[in-house]
Amino acid sequence: MLIVTMGLAHDQWRLMQAGSKTVEIHLYDAKRQSLQVGQKINFQDTQTGEQLLMTIHQLVVFPDFTALFRRYRGTAVGSQSQDSLAQMVREMHTIYSPEQERQFGVVAIILTR
Question: Which spans in the chain are helix H?
Answer without folding.
Answer: 10-18, 30-33, 65-71, 85-92, 98-104
